[in-house]
């Protein structure tokens, strides 16, 4: 069964606590938190005090997606808050292996995110230690964008690399995920599905989460 990760970027920031409770009751597996610095991506989302408040409220694990230029910056703080998984963009650093170690040394799962144009081969030599690869299916920076279908080939390629290498890592997809694109991605090999606008705009959150779980 797929795991469903609602992106709280699409939640109602004035009532985030209610949204968290309702999404948990609807069966969400993990909350996805998008951190944007206005540098790596042309948008700013929210920072440490908001993550802390979410961590105190949530009863399910948190997945922090760093869209920042210095992804190593706040790793100890996220660990302190109880975050379970952190991903950072390979395009944002010359030292992905070192950052992966830093995340692991703080007791969290480490993921590497790839922009739509970045080939999956970039993570090949990191696979022995990686916990998950996040394939962006939109250009990072905004919710509510349209799924980029050419990214599906990358999920398939990564699934083949996983099979051939025997390394155990999860494949996460993020951006434009709805019932139709979720099915395409899971068939290609993804198991962690981030969904923001589709989930939060659906009238029946439990039904929407169940459908994505497949
Ligand atoms: O990383 C992201 C944007 O950069 C978000 O996680 C993603 O866009 C989710 O939103 P939606 O499902 O509305 O596309
Ligand atoms: Co994201």
In terms of structural class, how would the helical and strand content be classed? alpha/beta
Terminus-to-terminus distance: 6 Å
**CATH superfamily heading:** Aldolase class I
CATH architecture: Alpha-Beta Barrel
For this entry, what is the oligomeric state of its chains? single chain
Number of domains: 1
Characterise the protein shown here.
- The chain is an alpha/beta fold and 214 residues long.
- It has a single domain (3-213), classed as Aldolase class I (TIM Barrel), CATH 3.20.20.70.
- It contains 8 helices and 8 strands; from the N terminus they run βαβαβαβαββαβαβαα.
- The chain has an 8-stranded parallel sheet with strand order 1-8-7-6-5-4-3-2.
- Strand 2 (31-36), helix 2 and strand 3 (62-67) form a beta-alpha-beta unit.
- The longest helix has 15 residues, at 151-165.
- The N and C termini lie close together (6 Å).
- The mean pLDDT is 98.
- Cobalt (II) ion (CO) binds at residues 7, 32, 34, 65, 174, 194.
- Pathway: Carbohydrate degradation.
- One of its GO terms (molecular function) is D-ribulose-phosphate 3-epimerase activity.
- Catalyzes the reversible epimerization of D-ribulose 5-phosphate to D-xylulose 5-phosphate.
- This is Ribulose-phosphate 3-epimerase.
- A divalent metal cation binds at residues 32, 34, 65, 174.
